[in-house]
From TrEMBL:
Its EC number is 1.1.1.47. This is Glucose 1-dehydrogenase. Residues 6-189 form the Ketoreductase domain. Transmembrane segments: none annotated.
């Protein structure tokens, strides 16, 4: 198994894409710490995934520095080391630009962008210590989006935060390369999470999504998990500073495609 003997933290790992990543990493041999603010969902996730491997949960507000340091300490206490980090936690807030409240902008930026900085810095510092003790360098994956490039008019802080994630990924990759620590990002397109499932119940909305997706279908969280596991694994040993877009071909598209009924 590609991740056998490694320990990973997955933020926002209690549901959706995060939970799919936890499942995949555990199935590939990693010990996984789920970090999520939703305690009930986190406990349920551990029960759901524990059959695939060793998985634990720590209630964490990833936008708070002390919570992040507590997360790192608990992970080291539980597993002895940290070899991988997936900064997946993310939220949205819909509002027109002219109506957006400062507090809502700050809240989304805190969870989506600041958390990746806080967790990335805290985990990378520990990884550097491990390297000094003779361990192999680790790897970090940030969850970006096709909306690091595309924009949604009523998703101001989300779009801005994802643009920031892609730049943060490059900065982290360059800064940590001398230590051998790799940093990459995954940019999902339309993925069948619980939130999107409520949207595609509407035929018009579903057709609008598929008309801009050349592969003609909505992605599954497991497909994002597969890309994430690859980037964390030795198979991606010469890949750093990249954003891999798993979007069904949407990013290169400059027209719409026919939708099958």
């Amino acid at each position: 198994m590609r991740l056998d003997g490694r320990t990973a933290i997955v933020t926002g790992g209690a549901k959706g894409i995060g939970l799919a990543i936890v499942r995949r990493l555990a199935s590939e041999g990693a010990k996984v710490m789920i970090a999520d603010i939703d305690e009930a969902a986190g406990s349920a996730a551990v029960d759901a995934v524990s059959g695939d491997g060793e998985v634990r949960f720590t209630a964490t507000d990833v936008s708070e520095r002390l919570d992040v340091h507590n997360l790192v300490a608990k992970t080291i206490d539980a597993f002895g080391s940290i070899n991988a980090l997936v900064n997946n936690a993310g939220i949205v807030h819909a509002a027109d630009f002219l109506d957006l409240e400062e507090a809502d902008f700050d809240r989304v930026m805190g969870v989506n962008l600041k958390s990746a900085f806080l967790c990335g810095q805290a985990v990378a510092r520990h990884m550097v210590e491990q390297i000094g003790n003779g361990e192999e360098p680790g790897s970090i994956v940030n969850m970006s989006s096709i909306n690091d490039t595309f924009a949604i008019a009523n998703q101001v802080p989300y779009s801005v935060s994802k643009g920031g994630i892609s730049q943060l990924t490059k900065v982290m990759a360059l800064s940590l390369a001398p230590h051998g620590i790799r940093v990459n990002a995954v940019g999902p397109g339309s993925i069948m999470t619980d939130l999107l499932a409520t949207v595609v119940d509407n035929a018009e909305a579903r057709n609008r999504i598929l008309s801009r997706t050349p592969l003609g279908r909505i992605g599954d969280p497991s497909e994002i998990a597969a890309v994430t596991a690859f980037l964390l694994s030795p198979d991606a040993s010469y890949v750093t500073g990249q954003t891999i877009y798993a979007d069904g071909g949407r990013m290169p598209l400059n027209y719409t495609v026919p939708v099958k009924d």
